[in-house]
Design a protein that fits this description.
The protein has 14 helices and 3 strands. Helix 2 runs antiparallel to helix 10. Its main location: membrane.
Length: 386
Amino acid sequence: MLRRVLIQHGHHLQIKRSFIHTINHPQQSPSYIKPLLFGAVSCTTIFFTAACIHEKEKETIWQKLRKQAGNTLRDIITDDNLVWSDVYKEKKKLIREYQNQVLQDLQQRLEQYNALPVQLKRPLLSTAETAFYMPESEKTIAALISINIAVFACWKVPALQKYMTRYFCHNPASNRQWTLFTSCFSHRNAVHLTVNMVGLWSLGPVLHDLLGREQFVALYLSLGIGANVISHQLQLMARHIAARPILPSMGASGALYGLLTGTAYLYPDAVAFVALLPWIPFKITYAVPAFLTLDAAGILMRWRMFDHFAHLGGASLGIAYMQFGPNHMWPYMTNTIRELKKSVGNGKGGNNNGGGDKTSGALMEMPERIRAKLLGKKTVAVPDKH
């Protein structure tokens, strides 16, 4: 069952004119092409990096299983009882062993450190245990929230204002492409930060548990970049067509809208709660169209408080990815990484010349063979189980 989802009307803040005048931009014509290229290259790089990490971790687990089984590689491949639940259990076991070892080392160090009072040692150890035994999804979300909080703290340092404006606020007129990414973590006021992070904490674990850590992080980052690229293009078009001013913007709401619509696409009957009205439940398929209608009205009525283009862009990308990503794009990337690894192994003589690790290619093939058995069932398409 899907956990209750707390929906927030994401604030992709647009900076008011008084702030715009403090920004010194180079006198260049805003570009349409460069942001598109940056978005395509960066999102592709992010996803392929995530796929590499995913495949490396999976191979490590398979090697661990092979050592424990004490059988030949062919014995493992033909074992019908070896399914993805075994891999998932082994991964949890490896994580738990690591956590226990770290906590034991911490406890020993605290006991040896006599200068620290016992009254402080116990809370420190208890806090460490709580952090280590958090679900993997909550650890991932907590890491993303920590980055946002760190960037928010930097905004509060007067000496860093010029730096933050240049590197963590995206203005389509500035021709600085990297801010398409960095502005996704940027919030200048506490309300903006709190609303978005509450939304991330409530929405994130749902898709994280479904997609796995690597694919979820890649999706979240790409949604933020993609929403900003769409907003960039539409702001430039609106300036030429309707003489709308170009305003800088920042915030995580483009990515959050993508997570929201992605969740609604997969779980249309889920019950959601709006942050401003937490006591009133809404069916998510009703809440999402209401938010999107509000953003469309904001564009037509020229509201300037939020970046409505980024909201709608993130929402469309979230639906598009859930339609095609887990079924097609992610498997293609993981298969590509697997084939590249096989070809590199062959080039080093792993299978042809008697050199290298002969088991490496087979270890990468085993998940694909087992997945073929599992895909006989008609289920919601998701990547390899984590």
